[in-house]
Amino acid sequence: MSRARAFSFQCPTRRAHVRSDEVIRNTEVMDEPTKWHAETLAIVAGRAPQPGGPFNVPPTFASTYRDGGAIGYGRWGNPTWSAFEEALGELEGGHCVSFASGLAAVSAMLTSLPLATTVVYPSNGYNGTRGLLERLVKEGRLHTRAVDVVDTSEVLGALDGADVLWLESPTNPLLGVADLPTILRAARDAGVIAVVDNTFATPMLQQPLALGATAVVHSATKYIGGHSDLLMGAVVVSDAGLRDELVEWRTTHGAIPGVMEAYLALRGLRTLPVRFARQQRTAAELAERLDDHRHVVRVRYPGLVTDPGFERASTQLGGFGAMLSFEVNDAHHADRVVELLRLIVGGTSLGGVESTIDRRGRWKGEELVPEGLLRLSVGLEHPADLWADLDDALNGAFTHSS
Ligand SMILES: Cc1ncc(COP(=O)(O)O)c(C=O)c1O
User: Fold this and answer.
1) pLDDT tier at 50, thresholds 50, 70, 90
2) What ranges do the domains of the chain cover?
3) What sections of 222-271 are H helices per DSSP?
4) Any idea what the Cα angle at residue 241 is, between residues 240 and 247, rounded to 5°?
5) pLDDT > 60? residue 27
6) Distance CA 288, CA 213 (A)
7) At 339, is the secondary structure helix, strand, or coil?
8) Class at the top of the CATH hierarchy for domain 272-400
9) DSSP 59
10) pLDDT for 368
11) Ligand 1: residues within 6 Å at CB?
């Protein structure tokens, strides 16, 4: 019988990094050479700077700005984007550029690569990124090599002659944990650009730029927004030149975020540390209970001591995350579980305040995922209510259907 390790939330402290002069800054607080914890940074970064003004940068609804100012046109910049970008940039330790969605951020990185670039990517990572890579290969623009990012020697073996390494850890939806410190060190030594999709871990668990990644990508739609009411994405980089190139890409491709989305995403980010801490505590409890359930074949959660990712997650992450996957014997019973749940919502997104569940094997591109696997995004409901819902649905699925 496996046991989830009691969650210990270690907040990353702020690291020194080059900071942009062009973003809105709360000069009173953010220019001090202090070492704020993530909870504090999430509250103060991107705060409106004007004495006498509102605490929060309001949504600026503008397609055009009057001549004589810094921005000019609505596709070139927006103070509300900048406030969000400052806050996420501070949490990740780099310069942030926001995009219309997570996939727009992924696109900015992948479609701006020179022709014939070789990209190493996770064979079992997010299917949208894999779909885009497939398309770029079909168009003759990129070469790719698929690897299991959990298998460090396979990843290192694929770096020879590669240009870009795309990583995701924990992976979506199998929750495999990659040895990021070793892999990122090797990539740097080999001169390979490393990009980490940090959507599942969030900066609360890991900050890949500090480990040598060139860029971090986020679907801010998920934990950062946190309320299932917006789509937005971001890329965070250490290098100010690369930041400028990404802004240029965004301007010329028009993949800009909406103003209201940016406002809501920053509002969501303010509570990310506290939401995430609670959500992963509940996830650990549910993982442990599911692991003991007679109808559950396997639980994948890096906080379970029997999980293959446990050792790495314990030493390399600031916590075990709030996503877990569990398997029942087949697709039919998994679908029945989803139908019978009353509190947990069937739906394909994740990271919100509400718990959501998805049988991933039903989607195109998820052929490697076991048919009976259910991915559970644990929300902020009371753990006892969530457990009662899961237990009832599991028992009901196996009682009423065969
Ligand atoms: C790990 C990961 N990256 C990127 C994306 C794409 O984000 P969006 O849906 O905001 O475009 C998703 C969406 O599910 C995701 O799970």
Assistant:
1) confident
2) 272-400
3) 240-253, 259-270
4) 90
5) no
6) 33
7) helix
8) alpha beta
9) P
10) 87
11) 101-103, 106, 126, 128, 168, 172, 197, 199-200, 219, 221, 231, 233
